[in-house]
Structure formats: C-alpha cells, structure tokens
Amino acid sequence: MQAEAKQTDQEVKHAEHSEFVSFTVAGQAFCLKITQIREIRRWSPVTILPHAPADVLGVMNLRGAVIPIYDLSARFGLQQTEASERNVVIVVSVHGKPVGLLAESVSEIISINPDDIQDTPPVDSRNTMEYIQGIISHDDTMVRIINLDAVISAPEQVMP
Amino acid sequence: MSGSIQDTFFEECEELLEATDEGLTAIEGGDHDPEVVNAIFRAVHSIKGGAGAFGLDDLVAFAHRFETVFDEVRSNRLDLDEKLIQLLLRSSDQLSALVEVARDGGEIDEAHNDTLLAALDEYIPEEEEDLTFEPMGLGGPAPMMDLGDLGGAPAEPQEETYRIRFQPLKEMYGTGNEPFFLFQALKDLGELTVTMDENELPGFDAMDMAEAYLAWDLVLVTKETRSKVEAVFEFVEGLCELSINGDGDAEAEANALAALNAMFAAPPAGDAAAAPEGEAPAAPFEPPVPAPEPEAKPAVAEEKASAPKAESGKQEQRGGPKPTLRVELERVDRLINAVGELIINHSMLAQQIANLNVSDTRDVETELEGFKNLARDIQEGVMAIRAQPVKPLFQRMARIVREASAATGKTCKLVTEGENTEVDKTVIERLSDPLTHILRNAVDHGVEKPEDREAAGKSKVGEIRLSASHRSGSVCIEIKDDGAGVNRPRVKQIAIEKGLIPENAELTDGEIDNLLFAPGFSTAKEISNLSGRGVGMDVVKNAVTGLGGRINISSAPGKGSTFTIILPLTLAVMDGMVVSVADQTMVVPITSIVETMRGSDDMINSLGADGTLLSIRGNFVPICDVAGALGLYRESDQQAGVYLLVETETGQRCALAVDDIHDQRQVVIKSLDGVCGEIPGVAAATILGDGKIAMILDPESIIAASPTAAAFDTERRMSNAS
Amino acid sequence: MKTKVLAIDDSRTIRNLLAATLEEAGFEYHCAVDGREGVDMYPDVDPDVVITDINMPNLDGFGVIEELRGTGINSKVPILVLTTESAPELKARARGAGATGWITKPFDDASLIFALKRVTGAAA
C-alpha cells in the first residue's frame, strides 16, 4: 500500500519531511501543504455572487484583488458551513490566482514524512475520492490531505 | 544572438509593416510622393536586413523581391498603375504573413508565396534578377574568398610566406583608410616585417600634401589562407598598388589579382546593363574622387537628386514624432492598479473621517478634496499611457477587406477616418475580432456584386468607411458600407423560423435590424466560407459589451448599413450609481441610466399575474426587480422602492427596481475574469470605500434575465401585431 | 581608452545587434537613428569610427559620408557603410562618396570586428 502511494503521489514523494497545516472542516481533519498556503484570515462577510452555486460563498477584497471564497465543506459534499467570526479563510494560490477556502478552524502545523502517507481507501463518495489525495494518521486522528487542483479546477469552470 | 534582440526585430517589423501599409494606402489613394515610395522601400529594406541577421531566409527572399520592385518604382523605371498597386498591397500582406510565420511558427502558403514572387518578378528587369540577393554567407570578406579560390590558393593550414608590396594611391587617404591599421590587422595573422620605401618621396619643397608618395614592402609569415590576407586589403582594393606574392605561387597570384581586377573593372553583364551606358566599365576601379564628380554614375546622381526631397521631408518629420519611451506594459498596469487603489483609499479615508463624528471637518475635507484631485490627475495620466491610436488596427482591417473582396469576387475599398483617435490598448486588442467580423460581413452580405451595383446606379467599387472618434467621454467606432442594407423581410423570416420572434410579431425597422445580434440568429446563407465560420453577430455584440460598450446597427435599404460601436474611454474606471439590493451594495453604470425616481404605490400597475408596470408621466414601463433577476432574496422587510429608468440598445425602456440609492461616484472596475464564470446581470466588480466588494451590474442582461420585462416586450410585439 | 563607435541606422534591430556585439567586444557604442541625427551627434561623440546604414530617412548614408567628409576636421574619420548588397557597384559608389569600407548585412561578430580593426587598428 505504501509503495503504491509513493508511486501515485508524485508531489509528496519528493519531499523529505514536509510541513502541513491541519484544519477542520465540518468536524473532519484536513490538511494542506504549508507551501500551498498564502495566508490565513479570519472570516469576514463576503460579497455574494448572484447565481453562484452553494459552495461558492462569494468574493472578498484581498488587498485590492477580488478573490473568490469557497465553502470547503459544501465542496466536499458535507453540510454547508454557517460562516461566523470564529471561522477562517485559508488563502491558497491555484493556477497563479489567489482563492479563499472557508474552514471551521485551523488546528496546527504538522510535520509529515512522505512515507507515512497512505493512499485513500476507496469509499463510496466520488467527491471525497476526487478531492483527497492521501491520508495520514496524526495523534490518532485521520488527517486528509487535500488535492488542491481537484478542489479548485481551472478558474473558468468554477461556476456552471 | 539573444532572444531579446530577435523580439526587438519582430516588434520593429510590426512598425515597419505598418509603415509599409500606410504608405501603400497613401499610394492607393493617389499619393505618389517620392518620399512615400522611399519610406516603403526603407521599411521593406529594414525588414530584409533584420531578417538576414536571424537567418529568416523566406522572409529575406520575399522582402528582397518586394524591395527590388520598389527600387524600380523609386527610380522611375516603373509606373504605379492599379495592377501594380494591387500586387504591392497583396505582397505587403504576404510580408506580414511571413513575419508572423517567422515569429509564431506555422506554415507558409508556398503556392501563394510563389505566385506573388513570380508576379513581382515580372516587374523586375531580367538583368536585375540575375543580381538576386545572395544571403551573403558571413559578411565582409566573402567576395574575396571566392577570388582566393579562383587563384587556386592552397586551403590547408600550411605556413607560408607572403611578400606584399603596398603602395597607396593618394585617393586612399580620402577614404579614411590608414596603412598602419592594415598592418596591425596583418600582424594578427602571423609574423610581419614592415619596410617603408620612401624612394618616391620628393624633396621637402616639392612635397604636395595631397599626393601619396609612400610605399611599403611587407613580409608576412602565416598559416592563414591567402584569402584571409587579401581580405585585410578589401577596403583598399583599387585605391592602391598591391601585390601579394606567396612563395612559389607568383603565377597563381597574378592570375587571381587579374581576376579580381577584372571583376571590379567589368561588372557582370547584368550590372553593366542595369547601369545605363554612361558608366565607363572601369569607373569603379578608377581612383574615386571624394568631391562631386561631374560625370558621376547616373545612379549616384539620382541618389543625390533625391536627397533634397528627403531633406525637406525631414523638416516635417522632425516636427512630427515626439520622443518616446518604451515601457513594459506590465509596469504600466501595475501603476494603473496602484492608482486605482489610491482612489479607493481616498474614499475609505473620506468615509472614516465622516464616521469620526468630529464637528468641524472642513479643513480635512479641503485637503481630502486636493488628495482626490491629485489622484484623478495621476489616474488620467496613467490611463493616457495605455492609450494608443487605432491606426494599426485600422490598417489591419484594410487587409481584411482586401482578402474578403478577393474571396467574394467583389471590389471594395476601405476608407478610414480618425486613425489617430486614441483608445485603451486592451480595447484595441479586443476590438480586432469584432471589427474583422463586421467588415467581412459588410463585404460578404452588405456590398453587392459589381454588376448589381452598376444596375443600381452605384459605383462598381463598394466603399466601406471605418471611422473612429471621441464622443463625450466615449469612443465611437463606425463601420458604414454603401451596400444593399439589411434585407429586412428575409431577416424577419429567419427570426421567425428560428423561433426568435412570434410569427405575427410586429417589429420596427430598428428592431428587425437588431435581430442580427440575437443569439442563435445566423442566416443560412452566412455559411459562406467567409464570414461564416460558425459565429454570428451575437458574438460581436458580446465582445463589445464585454468591453463595457454598446453596438448598434442602422440601415437604409439600397443605401447601406452602419454599425456603431460606443466604448468607454478606459476599461479601468467608470461613473456608477451606488445602490443597495437585498442588503447588498451594487453599482449601476451611470451611462445606462436615463432617470431615477422614488416610486409610490399609485405608480405601480399590475399586468397579468406577476407583471408590474411603472407609470411615468402617462407612459407604462415594465418593472424589473433587480433582486429577483439576480436570484437574491431580501431578508429584511425592505422593499424595492426606488426605480432606475434605463434604456436598452433597442430603445426598450425598463425600470430597474432597487432598494435604495446611496451615492454617485467613480469606481475602479475589477474584472471578474478568472475569479468566476460569467454571471448573468453582472458586468464586473469594484471595491468600495469600506473595502467591500460590490458587483457592477449590466442592465441589459438583467432585463434579459427578468421574466417581467422580457414578457412585456414579447406581449407588446404581439399586441402590436394584432 | 576604448575605441568609440558611432553607429547610424534606422533599424532598431540592427542597432541592437551592433550594440550587443560592440559592447561585448569592448567598444564604446553610440548610436543615432537617422543620418541627420548621426551628423548632428558627430561632434559631441567624436567617434574613432562611424558605421552607417545607407537607406535611412532624413539623410541617407551617402549624405552622411558627404557631410562628414565635407567638414575638414572629420575628413579622416573611418566610415564603414552597412549594406545588404554585396554588389561591387554599391561598394564602389560608397567609396566614391568617401566611405572607408563596408560591412555586409547580415554580419557576424567576427567580420564586424575584423572590419573595425582594419580601419581603426582597435584591438578591442
């Protein structure tokens, strides 16, 4: 299983110990590589995009740039997040453009040995399978590694 | 060779091609000023020169042929008749195509290229053809090397001793050649011994400074080939007595030199024929006289004759182009963004001061006003940097019309006006496709066949007028043809067939014309290989509205059609009305608002189950609830009580219902491209004084999305029909 | 002391090529965009050698040579013409006007430097 994971997971394979930021979305633990994250901001109300799908919360002003904010929970097919001041927006860069991801809260920075990453076991949820590129065990909890490119496909396709 | 120099070359090519096009257009218009011809010659020549440096052989070969024909024209050996002008125009297009292929890759249409080359050749006297441009190998000494071979010099790097006798003629000193430097160059080749022979030096008294008395005997021991040695003397051939004797090859040497001299003395038959008889065969080998020679070769005389004209042209030119600075576009855009931030920053500051609850803010406000004005000044200045004349765009369009005419067998000419009108660079770039489409359409569908035109009492040549002008803060681009006009019965029939309008619809002429822009409307005949291409005028319209502009068509049967495109001066800022809709702050472009009013219940009239009409001074206008059209729901009990009366391109009026109006201000447009897909009803976004983002609405598409307004429109047509 | 070159050519491409080659080879490079500017700049630059294009607006290469040769003090400065034609006729014509030598376009670095060396002795 581990050997397979190493083969299928090019990006992680090259790194020795990589730093990941773990956070919770709808009560589940997820993480993103620290190098993928540009900044983490506290949630503040966004401007609604008319006709937007449920997982697109709207847009916000990031130092003069208009960036879209996604509800990760809705994106993963979990329930929609009732965004509040306690929540955070993780700003990542996808295809060179900043994008905000709403998460419940940020937990900690964890150091991951690529060898410890396990392939995602097949489960009966296509959304999950697509968006998760591997899982690891940390402090007895399962942390899901998000495949950013799958979550945010090419920007044009974001809205139907 | 660095890529950046090659980039420069292609950039320069663009300019040179523009100059060529411009010149040819002037010539086509009857301007046969020699300086125009000269300018084209120089432009093509420069393209050739640069292309040679980068080994772009196809381009070099074509440019050479093109240039040679122009040389004939400027030497008055060719008349610029209509046929030749057309050929030159097509050649100029081909030159552009070759530049494009060289830059972007792709295939050259060899057949077309060969046809044009052959056509150009017909204008080149045979003698000159022989003199075809040889991609010179590597510069300078090449011709000498050939001669070296002629002399049968050994090629293997064997050490050889050359005895060189070098006696300059006095003329050599007039050319700036210095024996000493030549010797230094020889010294680089091997071991050199120099002996000066001053035997011919007269006594001091008899010395004539203009005469040359000195001679040198040189001995060079070198492994270099004979041609290398000869190459050193390339520039002074004919300006000195020179003999180079290699050990044991005196014979071959003499022969080589004789051959060399023969080549200089008697140019190949072609040359002699090219230069009229007056030229003595030995002329080039005669000591050249720096002062003007009375019986100068005709070619030289001609060159001089044209010089004064060039000088007079210069006077005008000097007054013309101002010094310019080339700046990377990205830097300008960064600046534009920063200025946009500055303006937002100003409004944030103003808002915060207002929130301070300080009783006397007059001083601060005065300063703030100054801040605002300065920011605007900077903004205008920066915007001006991005502004460019539409001329290059228009010139490309001339080519489109030529190609389209050729493809349809019609004759059309494009007349351009207001070429110097300046428009934002991005607008120019994004106008290219819509304009191309409209022009192809005008040639294909607008302008009639020559015989039909004649029958209608028009000139056989169709005229398409492309003009640009500034009109009260907007840019207006007009495309006007003198063709048959929109075939309204046909357009209407098609629209009915495609289900775009009900069968019994009663439409005004303007409404019928505007059906051309309706999505899904594309006449069956339009699948001609020219303007067809599977796109309709709706794509044109989308492109224009995407630039924040509007497009309109007016047409007169038998007289032609006019497309009018109105564009904002800049893409970066606009005047907007700040409104609130379902607790969201939004901006409506001022340009689309006719008037605003607060509505009272008695102004609202129900029509059918959902439809509401607003009564304005006796006129009924459909109400379009913006919140509803955008799919937003009001959480509070706030009602849409304020109406913005807007008018669409088709002249349809509609009252946009919003919750409240706050302010009217200039906003910085932030594109939503790449942020999200296209949102019906939303044109772009902006950042307000409080740092929040607000959507900038697109009234046209809101109305289109609103069931009431759309229904009313159809109903009106139906009722008109009955 | 670096050898000073004044290049006169209306083609930005050629100017850039010359600049790249010459500066790399250690020459001091100055340029003008047409013949008139070249002649005007001449006294200020006071170059050791002039390289000029033939076909230029305002004042062509022949005009440049004539004007430079016409003013007594400059009569000796070496002037190389840049030409795309290898035709002997053109070289003769350039020389007739007082050119020192010629450089055929397209030129390579070596032949350019070689030409300069022969008229300035510059080792650069």
Q: Give the overall shape of chain B, derived from the CA principal axes.
A: elongated
Shape of chain A: globular
Q: How many strands appear in the DSSP assignment of chain B?
A: 22
Strand content of chain B: 15-25%
Number of helices of chain B: 24
Low-confidence stretches of chain A: 1-13, 154-160
C-alpha-based Rg of chain A, rounded: 15 Å
Question: What is the ordering of alpha helices and beta strands of chain A?
Answer: HHEEEEEHEEEHEEH
Work out the count of structural domains of chain B: 5
Largest sheet of chain B: 6 strands, mixed
Assembly state:
heterotrimer
The SS-based structural class of chain A is: alpha+beta
CATH fold call of the largest domain in chain B: Heat Shock Protein 90
Report the top-level CATH class of the largest domain in chain B: Alpha Beta
Provide the helix percentage of chain B: 40-55%
Q: What average pLDDT do the residues of chain A reach? A: 80
Identify the CATH architecture of chain A. Answer: Beta Barrel
The greatest inter-chain interface is formed by: B-C, 75 and 58 residues
Instruction: Enumerate the strands of the largest sheet of chain A in spatial order, edge to edge or round the barrel.
Output: 8-1-2-10-9
How many strand units of chain A?
10
Write up this protein.
The complex is a heterotrimer of chains A (160), B (722) and C (124). Chain A is an alpha+beta fold and 160 residues long. Chain A is 16% helix and 43% strand. Chain A contains five helices and ten strands. Chain A has helices at residues 2-8, 10-14, 72-75, 126-131, 148-151; strands at 18-25, 28-33, 37-42, 56-62, 65-71, 88-94, 97-103, 105-112, 132-138, 141-146. A five-stranded mixed sheet of chain A has the order 8-1-2-10-9. A five-stranded mixed sheet of chain A has the order 3-6-7-5-4. Chain A starts with a helix and ends in a 9-residue tail after the last helix. Chain B has 722 residues and is α+β, with helices and mostly antiparallel strands. Chain B has five domains: 3-130, Four Helix Bundle (Hemerythrin (Met), subunit A), CATH 1.20.120; 142-265, Alpha-Beta Plaits (2-Layer Sandwich); 329-387; 390-568, Histidine kinase-like ATPase, C-terminal domain (Heat Shock Protein 90, 2-Layer Sandwich); 573-721, CheA-289, Domain 4 (OB fold (Dihydrolipoamide Acetyltransferase, E2P), Beta Barrel). In chain B, the strands form five sheets. Chain B has a six-stranded mixed sheet with strand order 14-18-19-17-16-15. In chain B, α3 (57-74) packs parallel to α5 and α4 (82-104) runs antiparallel to α5. Chain B is elongated. Residues 128-155, 264-320, 524-534 and 716-722 of chain B have low confidence and may be disordered. With 124 residues, chain C is of the alpha/beta class. Chain C has helices at 12-24, 35-45, 61-70, 88-97, 109-120; strands at 4-8, 28-32, 49-53, 79-83, 101-104. Chain C has a five-stranded parallel sheet, with helices on both faces. At the A-B interface, β4 and β5 of A face α14, β21 and β22 of B.
